[in-house]
Amino acid sequence: MTKLLSIRLVAILVGLGFTVVALYSFVVGAYAAITEEAPGHLPYEEPRDIAYSFDGPFGKWDVQQLQRGFKVYNEVCSACHSLKYVAFRDLEQIGYDEGQVKAFAASKQVPGIDPNTGEATTRPGLPTDYFPSPYPNNVAAAAANNNAIPPDLSLMTKARHDGTNYVASLLAGYAEPSAELLEEHPEAAPGPGLHHNPYFPNLNLAMAPPLAMTGQVTYDDGTEATVQQMSEDVAAFLTWTAEPTLVKRKQTGWPVLIFLLFATVLAYLSKNQIWAAAKRKNG
Amino acid sequence: MADTAATATPETTGVADDGIRRRDFLDIAAVSAAGIGGLAVIYPLISQMAPSKDVLAASSTEVDVSAIQPGQAIKAIFRKQPLFVRRLTPAEIQAANAVSTGSLRDPQTLAERTKEGHEDMLVTMGVCTHLGCVPLGAAEGEVKGEFGGYFCPCHGSHYDTAGRIRKGPAPTNLEVPEYEFTSDTVIQVG
Amino acid sequence: MSFPWAKEYTPTNGVMKFLDEKLPLPRLVYNAVGAGYPVPRNLSYFWNFGVLAGFFLVLQIVTGVVLAMHYAANAQVAFATTEHIMRDVNWGWLMRYAHANGASFFFIVVYLHIFRGLFFSSYKAPREMIWLLGVVIFLLMMATAFMGYVLPWGQMSFWGAKVITGLFGAIPVIGEPIQIWLLGGFAPDNAALNRFFSLHFLLPFVIAGVVILHIWALHIPGSSNPTGVEVKSESDTLPFHPYYTAKDGFGLGVALILFFAMVFFLPNALGHPDNYIEANPLSTPAHIVPEWYFWPFYAILRAFTVDFLFIPAKLMGVIAMFGSILIWFFLPWLDKSPVRSGHYRPLFRKFFYVLLICMAVLFYCGGAPAEEPFVMMSQIATAYYFLHFLVILPIVSQIEKPQPLPYSITEAVLGSDEKAVLGENAKAAA
C-alpha cells in the first residue's frame, strides 16, 4: 500500500511539473501576444465557387468541356508545364478515338534513342507514351523561367486546397493590386518578373497571365473562348488528369452504399429479434 | 461462425411458429447479406492482380520489316517476349513446302503460317514451345539447327524454315502471334 | 477460463470431433467469440469498438498487402508507383483510398475504444494487463501509421519524416547520431523509405499478435460493463454468440456505411493536398501537419515554446509528447477508486468531461498553424491533460464519494435481482 501511495505521490509531482512548465510557456506566450504585434498574413482570396458537371455525388464528366480544356492545355499550358502522369492513351477516356489519339501522340516528340548510333534523340510519340516535358530537366526549366520551375500539372487540382476552383480562379484572376492593398501592405507590390494575383497565397507569382484574351484558343465546338471560359475548361481538364477515376468512383459508391444500408437494416432487425428473445426469457 | 447465427438457441424454440419463421428468415437474410458483401469484396481483390491498364496498352506492337533482307531475321519484343521476324529466301520457302505435312508432329503448311501475299515473311514468337527458352537462329551467325530454321539449345528442339517442330521434345510449332500488315512494310502484332 | 456456467463446445459431427481432438481450433473460437464466452448482458454500443478496431486492422492488412504488390519503395519511383496504383491498376484507386481512410477509421474506433476505457475505468484490477497491452497496440499503431504516411513520398511524407525523426535530435548528446541512424542518412531518402516500408509491412502483424494477447487477457476476467459491477451469476451474462455477434454485426454495418461514404465521396477530405506534390527536399510546405490522428500529441509537442531552467523547449516538448501516452501505462495504479464506472462517480465525471474538451482543443490546435491563439489554447489544454491524469485522478479517487451501485448487472438491467441482498450495495460502494 505504501508503495502504491508513493507511485501516486511521484505522479502528482511529475504532473505538477509538466503543468507548471506548460503554463510557464503559456504566460510567456501570452505576454508576447499582448506586447508584440503578430505579423499579419497577406490578404489573399479564397477561390470562387464554380459549378462543374462532376461536382456532387452524382457528378459526371462533361466530355465537351474536357476536350476544350485539353485544347487549352495543349495550346497554352504545355509550353511550360508537363503532364507527366498522363499517357496519350488516356485521352481515349475523354472521347477521342484510337486514330485521333495515335495521330495526336505522333504529333508530339518524346525522348528516344537513335537505333543506329544509340544517341539520345526524339521520336514521334506512341499512344503508350506519356505527355513529354517541355524541358529536359529541372535546371533547364528554372533557367528558362527566371528560376521558377513550372510545376507538373497532372495532380495540380488535388495538390491545392479546393483545387479545381483554385486553378480556374487563379487563371482568370490576374489584376493590378488595389491602392488600398498597397497602402496597407507595401510588401505586396509585385517585384520584377512577378505578377499580382489575389488568389495566390503570397499575391505575387512568376507566371505571367497565360490566358490573356478572348479567342486565344479556337474551340472546335464553337463555344466562345473567353478567359473565364478557358480557365474553367482547363481546370475541368486538370481535374480529370488529377483523378481520371473520379466519376467511376462516385458511380461505384452508390450501389455499395445502398447494399450496405440494406444489409445494416437487416442486421438491425436480426439483432432486435435475437435480443427480444433474451428480454422475454428474463423479463 | 457466422453461418450458425440462424441456429435457434434452446430457450427460443418454444416461441410460436410464425415467430420462429420470421426470426429464422431475418437471421438467414442478414447472414446472407453479409456473405454476399464478402463475396463482392473478393472481385476487386482478384481483379487487381490482372494486367493493369498500362500493361494492356503495351500489348500491341508495331514492327517495321522493310529493312530485313532475304535470309535475315530480326528480334523484336512483343508483350515482353522475343518475336522473330524472318524474310525467307526462295530456297527456304521451297524447303518448307517440300515437306509433306502428314509427316509433321504439328501439321501446318508454310502458307497457313504466313499472310497471303507475304509468304516470305515468317513471324513467330521466339519462345520454344517445350519449356519457354529462346531458340537460336534469328541472329547472324547463330546455329539454325538441322533443318535450317531455329534451334533451341535448352533441350535440343529443331525447327525448320517455317518454324515447325521437326526434332526434339517441343510438342508444337513456334507460335505465330496474331498480326496484320498495316502497310507493305509495317506489321502490327497483337 | 471464465464462468462456471459457460457453455461447453460439443462437436456435432465426425469431422468436427476429429478436429476437436487433433486441433481444437473450433473450440478456441467457440470459447473466444462464440456461445462459450459469457458476456455481461448490459453492454452498451460503446463496447462495439473493440470488434470494429479488429475489423479495421484486418482491412488495413488486406488492402496493404494488395498495395504492396504494386508499390515500389524507391525514392525515384515511389510517388509515380502510387499514381500508377491510382490510375492504371485495376481497382487500385479503391485499394489506396480504402487503405488511407481505413487508417483514419482505425484510429477513430481506437480513440473511442480508449475513451470508453477511460470513462468506465476498464483499466482497473483485474483488467490491468488488457489496458497495458492496449497502450502497446496504440503505440505500435502510431509508429505504423507514421511510416505508412511516408511511403507515397509526397511533400508531407518527406517533411513529416524529417520532423518526426528530428524529434530524436532533441535528446542531448546522442540525439543527432540517433536521428542519422534512424534515417540511414542525413535527410530522408532511399534508405529511410526502404526501411519504413519494411517496418510498415511488418508492424501490422506484430499488432495482430498483441491484439491476440489483448483478447486472451480479456478472457481471463471477462468483459467489463457500464455499471462496473462484476458478474455475479449466470443471469448477469449472455453468450457472446448470438447476442453480441448480432449487435457487433449491426455496429459493423453502420461503421462500413460511414467508411465507404468517405472512401467513395470524400476520399481526400482527411488527407492533405501537399501530399499530392512529389517530395522536394529543397522546398518546405507552408504548414507541416501530421495526419489528423496525431494532432493532439503534435499540439502537446508544440505547446512547450520556452526554455525552462536548464531544459530546452524542444526537449521538453518531445518528453511531454511521448510522456502524454506513456503515463497511460500507470493509470491502473493512479486511479484507486473502488468504483469503476464514471456513471457512479460524480466528481470524476466532471473532470472527465473537462478532459474531453481539452482533447478536442488539442485536436483542433494540433491541426492549426503554430500561431496565436492556437498555441496558447494548446498550452492550457496540455497543462490540464497532465494535471488530469497525474494529479486529479489520484486525488479524486481518494476523496470522492461514489453514488450507490446496483447490486448486480441483472438488477441494473431489470430493476431487480432475486439474489440481491441488502447491505452488499453499501459495501461495494464504500
TrEMBL record, chain A:
Domain called Cytochrome c: residue spans: 64-171
SUPFAM superfamilies the record matches: Cytochrome c
Gene3D superfamilies, per the entry: Cytochrome c-like domain, Cytochrome c1, transmembrane anchor, C-terminal
InterPro entries in UniProt: Cyt_c-like_dom, Cyt_c-like_dom_sf, Cyt_c1
Residues spanning the membrane: 252-270
Keywords: Heme, Iron, Membrane, Metal-binding, Transmembrane, Transmembrane helix
Signal peptide span: none
Compartment(s) where it occurs, according to its Swiss-Prot or TrEMBL record: Membrane
Protein name: Cytochrome c1
Organism: Qipengyuania qiaonensis
Automatic annotation (TrEMBL), chain B:
Catalytic activity: a quinol + 2 Fe(III)-[cytochrome c](out) = a quinone + 2 Fe(II)-[cytochrome c](out) + 2 H(+)(out)
The EC number(s) this enzyme carries: 7.1.1.8
Annotated keywords: 2Fe-2S, Cell membrane, Disulfide bond, Electron transport, Iron, Iron-sulfur, Membrane, Metal-binding, Translocase, Transmembrane, Transmembrane helix, Transport
Note accompanying the cofactor annotation: Binds 1 [2Fe-2S] cluster per subunit.
Cofactor needs: [2Fe-2S] cluster
EC supergroup of this enzyme: translocase
TM helices/strands, residue ranges: 25-46
Membrane-protein topology: Single-pass membrane protein
Domain of life (superkingdom): Bacteria
Span of domain Rieske: 86-188
Cellular localisation: Cell membrane
Record InterPro entries: Rieske_2Fe-2S (IPR017941), Rieske_2Fe-2S_sf (IPR036922), Rieske_Fe-S_prot (IPR014349), Rieske_Fe-S_prot_C (IPR005805), TAT_signal (IPR006311), Ubiq_cytC_Rdtase_Fe-S_su_TAT (IPR019470), Ubiquinol_cyt_c_Rdtase_Fe-S-su (IPR006317)
Family: Belongs to the Rieske iron-sulfur protein family.
Biological function: Component of the ubiquinol-cytochrome c reductase complex (complex III or cytochrome b-c1 complex), which is a respiratory chain that generates an electrochemical potential coupled to ATP synthesis.
Other facts noted in the record for this chain: The Rieske protein is a high potential 2Fe-2S protein.
Designated name of the protein: Ubiquinol-cytochrome c reductase iron-sulfur subunit
Species the sequence originates in: Qipengyuania qiaonensis
UniProtKB/TrEMBL annotation, chain C:
Keywords per UniProt: Electron transport, Heme, Iron, Membrane, Metal-binding, Respiratory chain, Transmembrane, Transmembrane helix, Transport
A matching Pfam family: Cytochrom_B_C
Cofactor: record remark: Binds 2 heme groups non-covalently.
Membrane topology: Multi-pass membrane protein
Principal localisation: membrane
Cytochrome b/b6 C-terminal region profile domain residues: 230-407
Domain Cytochrome b/b6 N-terminal region profile: 15-227
Cofactor(s) this protein requires: heme b
Subcellular localization(s) per the UniProt record: Membrane
Transmembrane segments: 45-73, 93-118, 130-151, 163-184, 196-217, 250-271, 317-335, 347-370, 376-396
Protein role: Component of the ubiquinol-cytochrome c reductase complex (complex III or cytochrome b-c1 complex), which is a respiratory chain that generates an electrochemical potential coupled to ATP synthesis.
Family to which this protein belongs: Belongs to the cytochrome b family.
Subunit-level organization: The main subunits of complex b-c1 are: cytochrome b, cytochrome c1 and the Rieske protein.
Protein name: Cytochrome b
